[in-house]
Design brief:
single chain; two-stranded parallel sheet; alpha+beta; 3 helices
C-alpha cells in the first residue's frame, strides 16, 4: 500500500508514458471531450507547436462530448 503523499507506481508509469509520447510529438485523447480534456490537450499542442513546426500526431478514441470543448482543441 502507498501513502497518500507518495506517488503510486501507476501514476509514475503514466507520467513517464506521457513524457515519452510528448517527445515523439504524439497526443492521445480517450473518453468524453470536456473542458478539462480540452485544456490539457490545448496546452500540449501549444507547447509542441512552439518547439517545432514538425507534425504532431493526435489519436482520438472518444464517444463525443461537449462541442465547444472539441472546438477548443480543433482551433
Amino acid at each position: 500500500m502507498y501513502k497518500r503523499d507518495e506517488p503510486r507506481k501507476d501514476d509514475t508509469l503514466s507520467q513517464r508514458l506521457q513524457e515519452r509520447l510528448l517527445k515523439t510529438r504524439t497526443i492521445m485523447i480517450y473518453g468524453e471531450i470536456n473542458q478539462e480534456v480540452a485544456r490539457d490537450v490545448s496546452e500540449k499542442l501549444l507547447v509542441l507547436a512552439a518547439e517545432s513546426d514538425d507534425d504532431i500526431r493526435l489519436f482520438i478514441n472518444s464517444q463525443g462530448g461537449h462541442v465547444e470543448s472539441g472546438d477548443t482543441i480543433y482551433d
